[in-house]
Here is the input.
Amino acid sequence: MFYPINIIITIDSIAALSSGQLEDNLFMMDTSLNSVNQGSNNLSTHCYQGQIINWIIYAIDVQTPVFIKEISLIEQENSLENSILKASSSSDDIPIPSKYLKQYYWSGYIPFNLKGEYKYKLIIQIEDGKNGELTINTPSLNIQSIYGDEQ
Here is the structure.
């Protein structure tokens, strides 16, 4: 059994809104021992099939609300909300199926049929309005088989 991995997203929301991009304004860290690019927007999270992943977002500027709007795999155009992760607004892990809820916290598990590196698209909503919706495609999940190299 593996411990859950927490991916902490910190955003400089004022700089992101001013520049219109998340690059250089988004910092990601996780609790996995073998992840690479900690503290950057290129985080590659080392994880295993069946492992729980939690995404948590914080703004540097506490007066500007930020939310996770969507997380989706890039390679397979397969939404993590539908296939891997369910959005949850609290730590009680109750799935919330709506994409329209404002989320500080997303949680779910890695399916047993995935292995390898999967880049994902992260859509962040800063405040309300269309200019506050920003996307980044650089983070990834580096999924390892729980059976070693057999599969």
Summary: The two ends are 18 Å apart (CA to CA). Residues 13-19 form the longest helix (7 residues). The chain is about 5% helix and 40% strand.
